[in-house]
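Tokens for chain A. Residues wanted.
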């Protein structure tokens, strides 16, 4: 059964010829490995079913199609294809151990990159976060001016690199907080309460700038599916984007017989909508590539979708995560004596790294970058809202509160020291006056 990159037909070959030389791909290489003299040592020929279907068996009528029909009629000894092992098929044929693990996914036309807007640099934060940053800058500037006047140690001027004094008044305090946010500006406050406030502000700047930088990179590099569909659940809940799969396949039967409402609803939609079901995976993939972004999504085995998405002209991509994981196996009629031999040989190929070698050769050769857009690996850039940044704002408020407390303590300590000095000064003056009086009396 032709299914790139597992089984492909040479363009120079003649359709219908039963010569293995006209076929190539992952499975042809694997069969050649299994047929080696030191393994199973057999010869084989390749042919395709006339209807070119994987096939199913109708449980009510017993009618079979595609490769399933040829196996049940013993027309073929093996079904070598991207044949998913399912319980329904296992009732009628035997499968070897899986030679390839997989799952289902979605193939969609790739959206054209959108030109960034004039104010795109504001996208990493929502408007409330930007307002919070602005208000924080103003509040901290006012607090620093108050602390500068409240603290007895804050009234000293700070000498800048140019030798000019710097004092914390409202205008230059605002400028100080802005420049420090931009990682510029003069030296910080020299008094303890000011250092506490600026310590909280600098930490606030560190987290905010780091978050902004990360989000900005995501906004500039990540492109999403135009309709915002990243999972099969989102696909099933809408009707604007059409979707389909190949008829009479394991994917088709899975959606039809699934007890999960999401998949059953998808089957009902596909079976009642014209033009969404296709006869082969190549037809479905071509339908995606010939459609505009947001028009049609094809549901199929992820390895096959990733292979096609990686081929030029790079107009499609795999979106969403894998669902309904399974495996490919070689099928054969019931009670064939070489079933265990094939299963053991396949496990040996996996243990020896031969299957991984074939995977790298046939499935990881795409010329297109970003062919797979999984939500497990990369997520679309989303603006950070005020709730996500709430923690850093709380820490800044705590720093403001602690700095005010420290400033009050500083002032009380300073007043206490000043009053003691004044008392001591008066005592010394009184003692000196008394001594002077006594000295004058003696003279008199």
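Reply:
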């Amino acid at each position: 059964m032709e299914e790139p990159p597992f089984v492909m037909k040479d363009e120079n070959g003649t359709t219908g010829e039963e010569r293995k030389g006209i076929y190539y791909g992952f499975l042809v290489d694997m069969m050649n490995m299994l047929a080696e003299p030191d393994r199973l040592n057999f010869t084989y020929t390749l042919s395709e079913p006339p209807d070119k279907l994987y096939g199913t068996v109708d449980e009510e009528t017993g009618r079979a199609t595609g490769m399933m029909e040829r196996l049940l009629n013993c027309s073929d000894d093996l079904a070598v294809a991207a044949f998913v092992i399912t319980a329904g098929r296992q009732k009628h044929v035997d499968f070897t151990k899986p030679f390839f693990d997989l799952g289902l996914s979605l193939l969609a036309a790739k959206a054209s990159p959108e030109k960034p807007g004039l104010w795109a640099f504001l996208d990493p934060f929502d408007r409330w976060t930007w307002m919070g940053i602005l208000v924080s800058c103003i509040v901290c500037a006012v607090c620093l001016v108050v602390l500068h006047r409240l603290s007895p140690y804050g009234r000293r001027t700070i000498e800048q690199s140019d030798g000019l004094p710097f004092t914390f008044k409202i205008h230059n305090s605002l400028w100080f907080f802005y420049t420090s946010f931009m990682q510029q500006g003069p030296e910080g406050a020299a008094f303890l309460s000011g250092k506490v406030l600026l310590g909280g502000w600098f930490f606030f700047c560190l987290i905010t700038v780091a978050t902004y930088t990360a989000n900005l990179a995501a906004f500039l590099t990540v492109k999403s599916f135009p309709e915002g569909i990243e999972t099969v659940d989102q696909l099933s809940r809408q009707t604007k984007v059409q979707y389909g799969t190949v008829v009479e396949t394991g994917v088709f039967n899975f959606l039809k017989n699934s007890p999960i409402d999401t998949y059953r609803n998808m089957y009902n939609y596909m079976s009642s909508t014209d033009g969404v079901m296709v006869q082969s995976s190549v037809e479905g993939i071509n339908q995606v590539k010939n459609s505009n972004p947001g028009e049609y999504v094809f549901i199929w085995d992820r390895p096959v979708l990733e292979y096609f998405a990686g081929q030029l002209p790079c107009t499609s991509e795999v979106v969403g995560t894998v669902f309904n994981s399974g495996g490919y196996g070689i099928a054969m009629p019931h009670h064939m004596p070489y079933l265990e031999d094939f299963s053991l040989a396949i496990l040996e190929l996996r243990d020896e790294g031969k299957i991984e070698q074939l995977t790298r050769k046939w499935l990881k050769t795409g010329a297109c970058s970003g062919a797979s857009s999984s939500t497990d690996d990369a997520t679309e850039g989303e603006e950070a809202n005020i709730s996500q940044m709430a923690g850093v704002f709380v820490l800044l408020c705590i720093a403001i509160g602690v700095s005010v407390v420290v400033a009050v303590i500083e002032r009380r300590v300073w007043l206490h020291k000043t009053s003691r000095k004044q008392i001591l000064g008066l005592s010394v003056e009184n003692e000196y006056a008394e001594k002077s009086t006594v000295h004058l009396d003696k003279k008199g």
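The chain has 14 helices and eleven strands. The radius of gyration is 38 Å.
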